[in-house]
Amino acid sequence: MEIEEIGVVKNRFTEPKSPDHLRKFESTIEVNDEYLDGLEKIENSEYLQVLFYFDRSDDYELIAPRRHGNLRGVFASRSPHRPNSIGSTVVKLLYRKDATLRVKGLDAINNTPVIDIKPYAPPFDRSGNEEIQKNQPRAEIVRLIKTGDLEELLTRAGVLHGHYCPFLALGVMAGQYALNELGGGSGDMEDLIAILETNSCFSDGIQYSTGCTFGNNALVYRDYGKTAVTMAIREGKGIRLYYNQEDYLEENYPDRTDLFEKVVKNREGTEEDERALKQAWTEIAFDLLHKPIEELFKVERVEYPDLPDYAPIYEDKYCSHCGEKYMAPKGIGDENGSNICIPCSGEPYLQLDGSGLREIS
Q: Which long-range contacts (CB under 8 A, 24 or more apart) does 184-188 make?
């Protein structure tokens, strides 16, 4: 059996590093000239599978301690020390120029021989990931939290938020930092609680990175109007992060904050201004990820924060006027013993919107 090198990896790493660390950075794959035609239309694929040769790998053991110390067979691991020294990684294709591919996510070091490239095809390649996703919905996000891959976290949070902006980035940074300090996990079963003090873009960064949401009862909202969050676990240990650089954007990006005033605050911008603002906000958001967390936030350790109890399960009632079901404590009873929902009763109610939490009469 013969295997030919089709190209070579080029990046900053000359010595082996943790795969999680390597994947944070961009690399290029320089394909040999004789295989140039084989790259025709490869740019139509967003992700690629890259097979490469561990040319500097030493001997292997069939059973040995792996990255986290546990014993495992070589075929049950991602070890670079393998009988045939072949590695495989899915990467994101950033762009192609002639025989050069710029990629992100490659865990191979400089001058590693590449032996094959093919498109990543979800129908064929995702079956294993789907099973993991079913059992651990946040498995990939937890990995990004632990490895500190803030760029990928922000990219994914943008799907929820709809665009990139500085405060979304700050929320992602605060959530990732707090989870690592508290030992990981997520808020899906209320063992971890996020107490938010604002309903700004910051809140979406917190919800995405931590998994604490209104829907799973792990998100508490306090209408303080501060860009701050307290992350706490049920045992009582917590950490509060308060963004204490309110003039940071104005001082460091004055032209772009003027654009924000025009487009968002004064609603006077043109479509071109809106596009320019989105581009500017995206650049700032990803730029912020490289700032030390202590430069942007006041970080406080909190012991035994005032956590709410686990969410109760309420009895259901049916409104005697409209017939719709509602949670029993939310209804209004009349003198005849009828159950009436809030809209039918005409009573004031609380509403959370862009203005914060307010009573609506």
A: 184/142, 184/145, 184/146, 185/142, 185/233, 186/138, 186/141, 186/142, 186/210, 186/211, 186/212, 187/211, 187/212, 187/213, 187/216, 187/218, 187/219, 188/137, 188/138, 188/216, 188/218
Tell me the CB-side half-sphere exposure of residue 352, using CA atoms within 13 A.
11
User: Is residue 103 within 8 Å of 27, Cβ to Cβ?
Assistant: yes
CA 313 to chain centre: 30
The C-alpha atoms of residue 107 and residue 261 are separated, in whole angstroms, by: 43
Domains and CATH numbers, the chain: 7-125 (2.40.30.70), 139-303 (3.30.1330.130), 316-360 (no CATH)
CA dist., res. 100 & res. 213, Å (int): 43
pLDDT string in tens for the chain (361-residue length): 788 999 999 999 998 888 878 888 899 999 999 999 999 999 998 889 999 999 888 788 898 876 545 677 888 877 888 899 999 998 999 999 999 999 999 999 999 999 999 998 765 665 555 565 667 788 788 878 887 889 889 999 999 999 999 999 999 999 999 998 887 655 556 678 999 999 999 999 999 999 999 888 899 999 999 999 999 987 778 999 999 987 888 888 877 777 777 777 778 778 887 888 888 888 899 999 999 999 999 999 988 667 777 888 889 999 999 999 999 988 887 767 789 999 999 899 999 888 888 999 8
Tokens of 30: 């320089």
Looking at the whole model, is its pTM more than 0.85? no
Residues present in the chain in total: 361
Residue 7 dihedral angles phi and psi, to the nearest 5°: -175, -170
- The pair of structure tokens assigned to 331 is 């209804």
